[in-house]
Design brief:
Blueprint: E1 6-7, E2 13-14, H1 17-42, H2 44-68, E3 71-72, E4 75-76, H3 79-114, H4 116-125, H5 132-143, H6 147-158, H7 160-178, H8 182-190, H9 193-234, H10 240-250, H11 257-273, H12 276-302, H13 310-344, H14 350-356
Antiparallel strand pairs: 1-2, 3-4
Helix pairs in contact: 2-3, 2-7, 2-13, 3-6, 3-7, 4-5, 8-9, 9-10, 9-12, 9-13, 10-11, 11-12, 13-14
Length: 390
Amino acid sequence: MEPGQDTGASGTTRLTFGEKFRLQTWLLGVIAFGIVLYMLIAAKFVLISLFIAIILFSLTSDAINSIARLRIGPIGISNGVASVVAVLLIASALLSLAGLVLAQVNMVVTTTLTYTDQAQRAIAQAFSWMGEDVEQAVLASMRTIEFSGYIRTAAGQAGNILSGAVLVILFVGFLFAERLWFSTKLVNLIGDADQAERVGGIIGSIIRSVNYYLLVKTFVSAITGALVFGVMTLFGLELAAAMGILTFVLNFIPNLGSIFATVIVGLVAYVQVADLGTALMIFALAGAIQFSVGNVIDPMLMGRALRLSSFGIIISLAFWGLVWGVVGMFLAVPIMVGVMIVCSHIPPLRPVAVLLSREGLPDTRIPPTPARSADTLVRAEPRHSRKPAA
């Protein structure tokens, strides 16, 4: 009999109170995880919009603080005016981006419907080396698939982009309206100025890491998309702009996005030129662009800023892809960065941060927080400097 276990008169082993408590805790944890997972899936549209709004708010908040400190002679720019200008710029950018995406989707749908028959023949022709019977069988199978229905369904889903953009704009507006009181609310919520400053430093570290990652990814993805657009234009292919935008967007999905983008560019090229050699050349050029940019420029700019585990990134992509779909894969890395930083500062959760970091050495340093005004944050003396009462 193992220590801590009790044996009844019948000879059966009974669990002690401590074992029952641990089992109950694990069961409650599993139930809580199931409830949270259900809520994430049920409210994914609102939660995705809120998460994107927080990212946009964090990207522009530091810029707004810098603008608010500027003075034009005796005239200064208030935080309110700077926040209103920021919300208007974000709203204009989101609505313009949504309109651009919808226009490209409509063009892709129209062009794809035009090339449906040619695409079926091109795919069947790729099996011609196996014999004419196989080629005809593949062509007959392709013609039984209702491509037009799937394409129109996908185009209908793209209509949610506009409503999502409007919801993000509303969230960003309210976040800017509340941002002046974040520090005060944090102190009042925690009840300790020192602890509130520590929590604020952790939040600032998450914001800076995510912002740096997004800025680098935007720059690298823009270069990759522009080069793919140039290759498609050089060969005189249609949908060059759409493929450039698609490459730009998919490159935000780490590891897998560049592969998907290269394969799609190769398939589109093969359908249009109907020549396997030319399509393979375009596929090779797109792959070379992805490899060069992803293995030279991206690591050079990103450096050791995030230090995330590659296996952890794949797990995060799989989980958030199942929960929130394709959008979840875009948000997987920012969420993973936040989880790793938070877990690295909580001793019981530090093993999670070790598993998520690349070398098993998560950064536990808290960068100094910027100076805050006296009316927004009352800073107490550090505990180690306080003198005991006489």
